[in-house]
Design goal:
The complex is a heterodimer. Chain A has one domain: Thiol Ester Dehydrase, Chain A, CATH 3.10.129. Chain A is 27% helix and 33% strand. Chain A contains four helices and five strands. In chain A, strand 3 and strand 4 form a beta hairpin. The radius of gyration of chain A is 16 Å and the shape is elongated. Chain B has two domains: 105 residues, Hotdog Thioesterase (Thiol Ester Dehydrase, Chain A, Roll), CATH 3.10.129; 43 residues, no CATH class. Chain B has a five-stranded antiparallel sheet, with no helix packed on it. The longest helix of chain B has 12 residues. Chain B starts with 10 loop residues before the first helix and ends with a strand. Classes of the chains: A alpha+beta, B alpha+beta.
């Protein structure tokens, strides 16, 4: 799917992008990012770090999901210019994470047609985990 | 010492504030690095072709495979970098080790990373604050990282928050 700058309206929603997350996803991410942190791999270590449910997912993987959702929306020829988020809640085992976004502004700036979005990653219960923003250039 | 005077801030942090580190070089990026990254972050679905199909990628504006913006070329160095990252600063007065968590980040992207690129990074401690949080006394450290490619082009700047408790 690819969008055009002219067609985008303030308030447009990012098409949702979801993944169920557990050790299969976390371990693959740990492998490519060399992120072998005990509380992402081991339930006891997760509890020691303060999460009763045990091991929990990487913030960086949620960040990757945001980038992936943006890429799918804007297509390969557009540019992801900025992404920022705060990790406010933990990604628990078997959470289904969905990237959500809403267009807040569109501007011609620095020679680019830029679209600004508010972004989040929500769980299967709709709980937000990762409020943030993004800027793409179309 | 009263509650209000507890601090995890060290003299090393005060001395390091605002000072850029020496540049650190990543190993050259390969197509395999990019493909594996994309596969891991899209699992269990197939990642977009721009990240692994050279023939297709040649037809895009980039003229070849590019890395996902979030790709980290600094994973798997043969030699561990010396010294900690500024986001891991801080020390408890009782000497017990601090637990660290990633509080968030804002990345601004320049040119994309490509196979063959050698990325260099430098980093600096920007500032910090402390407060009592859900996990007790907590230190929030803001640090900045800048990545450039072998031609000196800006690839990324990252402002990140390290949580230390």
């Amino acid at each position: 799917m690819t969008v055009s700058f002219e067609d985008i309206q303030i308030g447009d929603k990012l098409p949702t992008w979801s993944r169920k997350t557990s050790f299969a996803e976390w371990n693959r991410y740990a492998a490519v990012n060399e992120e072998f942190v005990p509380f992402h791999m081991d339930d006891e270590a997760g509890r020691r770090a303060g999460n009763e449910a045990g091991a929990f997912g990487m913030g960086n993987l949620r960040y990757a999901y945001i980038v992936n959702a943006l890429r799918e929306w804007i297509g390969d020829d557009a540019i992801v210019r900025e992404v920022g988020c705060q990790y406010r809640a933990i990604n628990q085992k078997d959470d289904v994470l969905t990237v959500t976004g809403e267009v807040t502004a569109k501007k011609a700036e620095d020679g680019e047609n830029r679209v600004y979005l508010d972004i989040n990653v929500v769980t299967q219960t709709g709980a937000p985990t990762c409020p943030g923003h993004a800027v793409v250039a179309l | 010492m009263s509650e209000q005077e507890v601090t995890y801030v060290t003299d090393e942090m005060r001395a390091a504030q605002g000072v850029w580190s020496e540049a650190r070089m990543a190993p050259p990026i390969t197509e395999t690095d990019i493909r594996r990254w994309a596969m891991a972050t899209h699992y269990p679905e197939t990642p977009p072709r721009i990240y692994w199909d050279a023939e297709y990628a040649a037809t895009t504006r980039w003229g070849g495979i590019v890395a996902p913006p979030d790709f980290n070329p600094f994973a798997w160095p043969v030699e561990r970098p010396k010294g900690g990252s500024p986001g891991r600063a801080g020390q408890r007065p009782d000497g017990k080790p601090l637990t660290g968590m990633n509080g968030g980040q804002t990345d601004t992207y320049g040119v994309p990373m490509r196979p063959g690129d050698v990325i260099s990074a430098r980093t600096r401690l920007v500032d910090w604050n402390e407060r009592e949080g859900r996990l007790g006394h907590t230190l929030y450290v803001r640090s900045e990282i800048e990545w450039r490619n072998q031609d000196g082009e800006l690839v990324k700047t990252r402002m990140s928050i390290g949580i230390r408790y």
